[in-house]
Amino acid sequence: MPVSRFLVISRPAAILLMMAATAHVCAQSIDEQIKRVTTTLTPSIVIKGTPEKTHTLADSMTKYKVPGVSIAVINDGKLAWAHGFGVKAADSKDPVTATTLFQAASISKPVAATAMLRLVEQGKFALDTPINTYLKTWQLPDNEFTKTEAVTLRRIISHSAGLNGHGFPGYASGVKVPTVQQILDGKAPANTQAVRVEMTPGTKWKYSGGGTTIMQLAMTETTGEAFPALVQRLVLGPIGMKNSAYEQPLSNAKQKLAATGHDDEGKPIPGRWHTYPELAAAGLWTTPTDLSKWAIEITEARAGKSTKTLSQKMATEMLTEQKAPSGLGPMLGGAGEAMSFEHGGSNEGYRCFIVYFPVLGRGAVVMTNGEGGGMVYRQVLSALAKEYHWPSFKTREIEPIEPSASILEQLIGECPIPPASPTDKPPSVLLTQENGKMMVEIGKFMPKTEIVLLANDDLIVLENGFELKLIRGNEGRVSHLMLGATKIIKK
What we know:
This protein is 29% helix and 20% strand.
């Protein structure tokens, strides 16, 4: 009998070979996607008719002095890839990996809100009961603003409780750290003002990390559990966020896994990072992969496919607008397929962002260890939006116009941003002209960068899409500028 020239393969072996081949193709595809995303970054804003200019992620990190970036991408409702870029610290060669820990900063808030909502479902809290009902060692003082409306958990996590305390600077290495009660009363060694009601609860949206800190105290006093253990039991553990912890200060074991924070010059923060006793507002250490697990879980719960943390009813309410733009924890945007939930984070030396489109099952988390990370992650998000066909975050094309000499005369100068409350100390918007270009600077929040004028009287920052609006009065002269809903007037 002649020997067959064909190799006979058993069915199980054939299946294994097919699986291996498929995995190889998928790996190649993922590698190609990562390459496209990280080598074809563009500015958030481009001028119509100009040649497309792309640059690499490494270029952007160098420009904005950000040593390390970590990215996790969700596609088709599951983690597509996670990858680290750069180094954990500018003065080391230790690479950022997918398991490197970053401070999540304000992304801590929606994760902490998930734990609080689970306590609501367990009957420990009610969303619309006055918050003082749940506080034992400290009480939020009543005043003229609380005569008719109460501060509640619903209003706290939707930033509509009328509370001050936008954010926290944290505590440098070696500095004494206050208790939560000292923070809430603004007493030494706290480095922020007392958290108080400064407008009628329920009337306006006003971001308040101070309110989230009140929620933190209510959670620990109601359950009798330390906050890190409580959130581990209610959220982090059930979801499988194994590289996450509300640890402040960070344990020695986890310090080896953590990226060092860096200032706007790319220099390491003294002591590597600040400590944030405001755990619920800013104290989560985590990875993009773990935050992706949280976003996927909330979406699965909303679809009735999981109850690891929240019921379908509660997850739906979490992603329902309470006071624009907030849901019960996350910020919300878009509608239908374009609906998204998202949140940014900004701690000393760290910048990060999460966005997820639950209907499409697409999104990403980007975490950085530099003050300039906000500029970097915006460009990464634009590249991801292009690669994965997101309905928003794509590069915006604009047609600037040349401002007249009269308009320039009216604009150039300092425009103080009015405080939203008596204790707020906002920076000024400074507009200047250099080498024929109009420039804008907003304190430490935005270094000097080019801003252009559009025909509809919008002023747009080319680097990041930041917008100001000209408002004209008599004879077409600029009477003031608008920053969102805030009126600002030139000095």
